[in-house]
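Revision sheet: structure tokens.
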Amino acid sequence: MGILLWPFKLVFWLTGLVLSLCGKLITIILGLVVCALGLMLCATLIGLWLGIPLAILGISLIIKGVLG
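Predicted:
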């Protein structure tokens, strides 16, 4: 079961690392930028495979910056 949850743990570990390296405000701004980049890539069919993970990473950065 742990192997199935590994990608989710990796995303939250990565956002925690970014939050610890920079402040909360910079983390929220970085999350907005990454989320916007992911959404722009989702608009193209070619960038869809990269846009969805970027959007999820951006949203998790925003959540971790606000709540963490």
